[in-house]
């Protein structure tokens, strides 16, 4: 007796940093009917993504890898095309939920050409974002501005911290009095010594 091979939707979601939230992707993948979702918190240009590797290893012929948007699969044209071709060779479909390529990938004829172009555009977009960010940071630096959060240790707090430390107060007591963390106080004192 032969059993019919049914498609199982397997989701893959990725955010670039731990500070980003993948909930939007998770909701879309769950709504699409994914029975299992694998996740990475790593840059798309990073080829060593444990979640993606686990998803690729988990899937069997007849399954469908589902991603929220093409750029979640990867940023490098070569890597995305390699993944897509490998999936096709194994009899695994690729489904993209949103964006220009929403739908299923077909590695034949016009579908392959269009897919290749869209992957190349996604890589170009990423490169342009990196370039603009770098140019903006360089321009700000040239104007004497630096990025990041403002320092909680201003000059007055630093003078007070040094004076209290000279009197023998503990770092814990000084940090509490100045309403800063001990790590911040240690850093500020180390930077001035």
UniProtKB/TrEMBL annotation:
BP terms from Gene Ontology: DNA integration
Organism domain of life: Bacteria
Family annotation (SUPFAM superfamilies): Homeodomain-like, Resolvase-like
Keywords: DNA integration, DNA recombination, DNA-binding
InterPro entries: Homeodomain-like_sf, Resolv_N, Resolvase-like_N_sf, Resolvase_HTH_dom, SSR_resolvase
Keyword Transport among record annotations: no
Domain Resolvase/invertase-type recombinase catalytic: 8-144
Pfam families referenced in this protein's UniProt entry, alphabetically: HTH_7, Resolvase
Statement: the UniProt record of this protein carries the keyword Iron: no
PROSITE patterns noted in UniProt: RECOMBINASES_3
GO MF terms, alphabetically ordered: DNA binding; DNA strand exchange activity
Similarity section: Belongs to the site-specific recombinase resolvase family.
Protein name: Resolvase/invertase-type recombinase catalytic domain-containing protein
Biological source species: Streptomyces griseoruber
